[in-house]
Structures are given as structure tokens and as C-alpha cells.
């Protein structure tokens, strides 16, 4: 590559990073230290939450008129940026950023960046898949233990000052099916095995019967119902796509054994929420936990709030401090690769 100045723009929403200012300053200094060619500018851009969600779920809608208006400073930075670290970008980013060559997302989901036409022939797109895998997998285990050990009931008895022995069930020897064997799903599989569980998984690129070192049995996507049919726990960790929209519906929940547990830490769009509520209300499922929902924030009138044995958390499975440390670790490593003309980690293939 040439010795020209490389302008790196930090544009992810400032409100997402709750660390002290010194932490970001240290990250910026680290990026600058990679090469004297690097110039780092800090100019944030953020779509409204509802628009961001719709960009991921409703690609057919004409949303451009709802995009956040750009300031003169944002336009100036976009005009000279070669590399951008972002969660959202304007729909017409390719017109606004003629020098742009690479966008690094700050999360595993990049559908809102894809809706801006990325990647294309000249601009590479990389996700931050995996940066939250440890924290989210630990969260899954916490929810499983909460439900199988009946911790909410035990806590309620303490609040009522009631001494009533309440016994749970052990996880060892039970079966779990992880749907989506990316970084998060794989970590869930590894930790579940450590607890002595029988681990099955569904992977998009697999064929049923393929081997994987981290699971006991692997299924292809066409055999989802077979994969969940004997599972005490089903964990959804799938990305957002047309194929995964409403993937977990009444048929899937009915196929799970009576008393099963469902946990979603992937994408809210993957679950038919009405069907899940029905499966909980009729008692077929023992419980469920959702860290993601279709509409965030969850509206006060949503039936999810009152569904029996359903625990909803507001997208809280990640650990923010570790998230940003891991994001900047990934970004710094990819920036070194970019300058060297090497392949980037987590690069997204261009759609044909």
C-alpha cells in the first residue's frame, strides 16, 4: 500500500461507550501508534433506535427520509475517511465518502450497515463477531441455572420470610441444542459440555451427521425440528437474515419436549413472540429467557412482560467494559492487517 495518510474515523454512538474518557483516549493512542500514516478523528453518527432496528428487519421499506440529518462536521469527516469504526452509517455513505475503503462494525450484527450498500467492490466490511461471546455464553448459563435450580422461587420465599425447601434439577446429563454455531453458540456449547450436558447444535453450513469437536451431534439447518426434539434446553444464537426470521415458531416449540427451556441471545427477529407466549401460557415450556426482542425497547403493552415463566432482559448479556476492549483489540489488529494489505478478520462477503 502507499505511504499516504490514512484517516480513521470513530463514528459509533458515543452513548454506547460508558467507560471513562481516558479509556477511549488510550484506544485512540494505540491506533495512532500502529503507524505514523494514521490520523484518527472522532465524529459520531447514530441512527435513531427505531430506524436502526427497521434497517435490519425491513429492507424493502423506504427509510432514507427518516435517516438522521448530517452535520457539516460529519459530512467533512465522511468526505476524507478511508476507514470507519461505526454502528450505523448514512444510507448514501458511498456518495458521501468517496475515499472509504473499509468499515469495521462494533457488533456482531451488521444488517444496518449492509442496508447502506456495504460491502461493495471497493469497500470492505468487517463485523465484531465474537467480541461478546464469553460474556453472552456466561449469561446463557446463568439463565439455565436460574431456571433449573428454581432460583426465582427460592428468592421469593426469602422475601416472604417463608422456610420451604424448594429443590431444582441438575443440568449434568441433560441435553442442550444450540442453534447457530458462531462464536457465541460455540462458547455456549463448550461451557455446557463442561457442566456435563449432552450438546447438539445446528449450523447453517453443516449437513446432519458432520463432525464438530465441540458438540456431540451436529445438524444441518433443514433438520432443526429433529435437533430440538429431545432438547431440555434450546439456545438461539442465530444471526439476522431472511432465513432466520420467525425461525422459532409454534412448530419448533411444540416439537421441544414438555418442560423444555428456550433462550434467545441472537436476534429478536428470529422468534415468533406470540407463539412463544402461547407455549408458555399452555405450560408446554417450563420457561424462557429473552435478551433480545423484536422491538427494542420493549413496549409497555407487550404480552412478553406478563408471560408466565418468561425472563426478559434489555439486551444486557454483554459486558460493556470487556466489549469495548475486545472491539478495539479486533480493530487494531485489523488495522495492522489493512495497512499490510492482508486479509481482515470477520470480513463479510459481498452479496451477489
Automatic annotation (TrEMBL):
<dbReference type="InterPro" id="IPR036291">
    <property type="entry name" value="NAD(P)-bd_dom_sf"/>
</dbReference>
<protein>
    <submittedName>
        <fullName>Phosphoglycerate dehydrogenase-like enzyme</fullName>
    </submittedName>
</protein>
<dbReference type="InterPro" id="IPR006140">
    <property type="entry name" value="D-isomer_DH_NAD-bd"/>
</dbReference>
<feature type="domain" description="D-isomer specific 2-hydroxyacid dehydrogenase NAD-binding">
    <location>
        <begin position="142"/>
        <end position="317"/>
    </location>
</feature>
<dbReference type="GO" id="GO:0051287">
    <property type="term" value="F:NAD binding"/>
</dbReference>
<keyword id="KW-0520">NAD</keyword>
<keyword id="KW-0560">Oxidoreductase</keyword>
<dbReference type="GO" id="GO:0016491">
    <property type="term" value="F:oxidoreductase activity"/>
</dbReference>
<dbReference type="Pfam" id="PF02826">
    <property type="entry name" value="2-Hacid_dh_C"/>
</dbReference>
Amino acid at each position: 500500500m502507499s505511504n499516504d495518510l490514512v484517516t480513521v474515523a470513530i463514528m459509533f454512538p458515543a452513548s454506547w461507550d460508558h467507560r471513562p474518557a481516558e479509556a477511549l483516549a488510550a484506544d485512540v493512542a494505540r491506533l495512532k501508534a500502529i503507524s505514523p500514516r494514521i490520523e484518527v478523528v472522532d465524529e459520531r453518527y447514530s441512527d435513531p433506535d427505531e430506524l436502526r432496528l427497521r434497517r435490519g428487519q425491513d429492507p424493502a421499506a423506504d427509510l432514507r427520509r427518516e435517516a438522521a440529518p448530517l452535520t457539516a462536521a460529519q459530512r467533512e469527516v465522511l468526505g476524507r475517511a478511508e476507514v470507519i469504526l461505526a454502528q450505523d452509517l448514512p444510507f448514501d455513505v458511498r456518495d458521501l465518502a468517496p475515499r472509504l475503503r473499509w468499515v469495521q462494525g462494533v457488533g456482531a450484527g451488521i444488517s444496518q450497515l449492509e442496508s447502506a450498500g456495504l460491502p461493495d467492490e471497493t469497500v470492505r466490511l468487517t463485523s465484531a463477531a465474537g467480541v461478546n461471546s464469553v460474556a453472552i455464553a456466561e449469561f446463557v448459563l446463568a439463565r439455565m441455572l436460574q431456571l433449573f435450580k428454581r432460583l426465582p422461587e427460592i428468592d421469593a420465599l426469602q422475601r416472604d420470610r417463608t422456610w420451604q425447601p424448594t429443590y431444582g434439577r441438575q443440568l449434568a446429563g441433560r441435553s442442550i441444542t444450540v442453534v447457530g454455531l458462531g462464536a457465541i453458540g460455540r462458547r455456549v456449547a463448550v461451557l455446557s459440555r463442561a457442566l456435563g450436558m449432552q450438546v447438539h447444535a445446528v449450523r447453517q453450513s453443516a449437513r446432519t451427521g458432520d463432525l464438530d469437536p465441540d458438540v456431540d451431534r451436529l445438524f444441518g439447518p433443514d433438520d432443526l425440528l429433529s435437533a430440538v426434539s429431545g432438547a431440555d434446553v434450546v439456545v438461539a444464537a442465530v444471526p439476522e437474515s431472511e432465513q432466520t426470521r420467525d425461525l422459532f415458531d409454534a412448530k419448533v416449540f411444540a416439537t421441544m419436549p414438555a418442560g423444555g427451556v428456550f433462550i434467545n441471545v441472537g436476534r429478536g427477529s428470529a422468534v415468533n413472540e406470540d407463539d412463544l407466549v402461547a407455549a408458555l401460557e399452555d405450560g408446554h415450556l417450563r420457561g424462557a429467557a429473552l435478551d433480545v426482542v423484536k422491538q427494542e425497547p420493549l413496549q409497555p403493552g407487550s404480552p412478553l412482560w406478563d408471560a408466565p415463566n418468561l425472563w426478559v432482559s434489555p439486551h444486557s448479556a454483554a459486558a460493556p467494559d470487556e466489549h469495548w476492549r475486545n472491539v478495539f483489540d479486533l480493530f487494531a489488529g485489523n488495522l495492522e492487517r489493512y495497512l499490510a494489505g492482508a486479509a481482515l478478520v470477520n470480513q463479510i462477503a459481498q452479496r451477489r
